[in-house]
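Chain A, query sequence.
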Amino acid sequence: MKLYAFPATPNNRKVVAFIRHYDLSVEIHIVSFKNQEQRKPEFLQINPMGKVPALVDGEHYLWESNAILTYLACRFPACAALPKDTWGRADADRWLHWQSAHLTPLMGGLKTGTETAANLEPLLRVLDSQLAKREFILGELSLCDFAIAPYLLTKLGSKLDYTGYPQLADWRVRMAKLKGFAETELRNTTN
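Chain A, predicted structure.
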């Protein structure tokens, strides 16, 4: 199994952090944007979108970071990162969709200046409330934590004011200390 990634972005970091945290037997190949590797025909066969992350498992190609997380959690059930019961799975899916439909666009808007931190406050409140009586989003560490944390651990996410969101602030600290996130902390990537 091989992951094509560029860990400097949240969608890539979440998958690389997950793999490293659980010591999964997945080869990680850092894609060279400098050499436009993502535009080469060989890579476009893996992901016709020309984006990373992308996973190859035998003859199967998978792209979209949350789909990759879900696949890895199913493929490596010993990590216990995805609930097995119907309600637990639906709850996990809800948070994965929340991240992609709500958190990601707002964080992108903050970066480009089309959104303000005030617009993000309802999302921070929802997440803080979810963490009120639990250490992690679903109670136990799950793929949902890996899906959401990279956005709030970015340089931009670190500039947000978490004063009114104490559970969320504590969760961010816990997530940053996890092996996978500590090993993928953004450094100067020359690729």
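The two ends are 22 Å apart (CA to CA). The domain at 86-178 is CATH 1.20.1050.10 (Glutathione S-transferase Yfyf (Class Pi); Chain A, domain 2).
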